[in-house]
Amino acid sequence: MNKKILIYVAVLFALIAIGTAIFLFFYREKGQTQNKKELPESMQSYRIFIADFKMLQTKELFLKKEGNDLQLLEKVLENYITELPSHIKDIKVLGVYRDKENVIYIDLSKNLFTQGDALEEYAILKSLYRTIKDNFAWVEDIRILINGKELETLGGHFSIENSLKTALEDNK
Amino acid sequence: MKKTIVILLISLLISIVNAQEEPRKISIKIGKYQDFYRFVFVCENSAISKSINVNLSAEGTIKLFFPELFSFDFEGKTLEEDNTIKGIRVIIKNKTLLIKGIPIKEIKVLRLENPSRVVVDGYFLESVADEKPLKNTTVLIDPGHGGKDLGLNFNDTNEKTIVLNLGKDIASKLAKRGIKASLTRATDDDLSIESRIKIENKIKPALTLSLHLSNKENFTVYTSPIKKNISRQEASIVFLNEDRALRILTKKINEHFTEQVYSEKLPITLLKNTTSTSLLIELPKRTALGDSKYIERISEIFVKTIEELLKKQESGKRNE
User: Fold this and answer.
1) Collapsing DSSP states into helix, strand and coil, what is residue B124?
2) Are residues B170 and B252 in the same domain?
3) Are residues B116 and B226 in the same domain?
4) According to the model, what pLDDT value does residue B128 have?
5) Which residues of B159-192 are buried (b: 16+ CB within 10 A; e: fewer)?
6) For residues B179 and B310, is the Cβ–Cβ distance under 8 A?
7) Between B151, B232, B272, which is nearest A156 by CB?
8) pLDDT at residue A51 above 80?
């Protein structure tokens, strides 16, 4: 008699355990689908780096997956420019080009940085570099053009004549 | 026979007495370090070392007073009354020993055991001790921006003009002190960063100082975290010198200005590609207000800093 009771209790516990496991499994799956639903498939998230004195702040940006890589990069760039400090105004992206080595050329209507100290210039260059490199891994290097022309430096402290990667290199 | 024994005993007694009357010996050791001389007086016992008094006179002479007459040894030779050792005059007068010829500004005295000795560290005035080597060194002053690149704009002036005038003034002051100074630009011309690097790489100065202005209230001194045109070994020496330069400059600015000094490591193109100790200094925006006394003070402090740093670098090289 006692044995029967013990078997019933054991079966009951086993059923409860299986039920809990199944419930947890489905609950988690549901949660994951819900999270996935937050960003529709047609959208892509990007991180924009904002120059803020010594630190780089980040901002999430959601864009429709429309057009090719360069068009998406241009859109990210346009959004990046809107986040620049208030004294840097009215800059337009005239074009974004890519060469065989995946070096991209960003043509801007105006200099990004003319007034300020070395740290501010560094922060602007770094924020631009990270915004592009972190979102578009295929980009090998970046070169800046102002109205189609190459510039040696934006603010007189960092030479960007060769590439942005070289300009910001801080370890051997 | 008896007579001979008596004579021998007497002569032995005389020789013992004579031996006891001979002054006891103290050995001297002298060593030169980066900014001080070390004088070590090795004594027979601690009673002697404890009874030696050491003073520094206003003229920079170290005076040692001994409790009794001693004879002094240096590298196995007994010293005379007036001696010159390693360019230092050591004069012995009765129970006093004088160390002259180097303008000592401060002394530290230690009494140590095994063997019993008195150690006197005499910190010297570097301006006299290290005057000659500075004449062979070159300092490169780089006034930032220039030509079309105005740098920061202020009401009736701009960064390129202020730093050019300051750079010229520093160079002229250095020249008056016998230090050769070169400018990357002496006129209001366009000068690329690459050209500035080429000048530095050609001259190979002992120190490069790039002058800039900031729109902030403080001084900022930048150094580079990397060096591209020199070997790792050379770079490690340059980094040490840059740290030293930073310390001296910060100390001097803190002593003479109310503005704060910040330091930053940034891969600024010029600093990264120079072969020498290189600093980029951003002056506070107060510099642009036209206060000539303030600018003069900056110029003076920078000249003093350069001088002190060069002496430290030179004495570092000599010690190596």
Assistant:
1) strand
2) yes
3) no
4) 42
5) bbbbbbebbbbbbebbeeeebbbbbbbeeeeebb
6) yes
7) B151
8) yes
Question: How close B214 gets to chain A, by Cα (Å)?
Answer: 5
Identify the domain containing residue B228 by its residue range: 133-319
The number of distinct structural domains making up chain B is 2
Does B34 fall in a domain? yes
ipTM score above 0.90: no
Per-residue pLDDT tens digits for A158-170: 999 888 999 998 8
Cβ A170–B232 below 8 Å, yes or no? no
Per-residue confidence (pLDDT) for residue B102, from 0 to 100: 80
As a residue count, chain B comes to 320
Alpha-carbon torsion, ordered B8, B14, B18, B20, to 10 deg: 90
Residues B114 and B174 in one domain: no
Q: Is the dihedral of CA B42, B43, B46, B49 positive or negative?
A: negative
Overall average pLDDT of the B254-277 stretch? 95
The residue among B103, B125, B147 that closes a domain is B125
Domain boundary among B125, B159, B183: B125
Q: Is B193 in Cβ contact with A153 (below 8 Å)? A: yes
Could you tell me if B81 and B139 lie in one domain?
Answer: no
Per-residue pLDDT tens digits for B85-135: 877 889 998 889 999 888 788 888 888 888 899 999 888 765 444 445 566
| B103 vs B276: CA distance, rounded Å | 31
- The contact set of B with A (CB < 8 A) is 144-145, 149, 151-153, 192-194, 212, 214-216, 220, 222, 225-226, 228, 232, 264, 266-270, 272, 280, 282
* Other beta carbons within 10 Å of B33: 12
CA–CA separation, A52 vs A46, rounded Å? 19
The number of beta carbons lying within 10 Å of the beta carbon of residue B299 is 19
DSSP H or E segment with residue B17: helix B2-21
CB contact under 8 A, B280 and A157: yes
Report if residue B13 sits inside a domain.
no
Q: Tokens for A122? A: 């560094």
Strands (E), B48-179: 53-56, 62-65, 70-74, 77-78, 82-85, 88-93, 96-100, 104-112, 117-124, 138-143
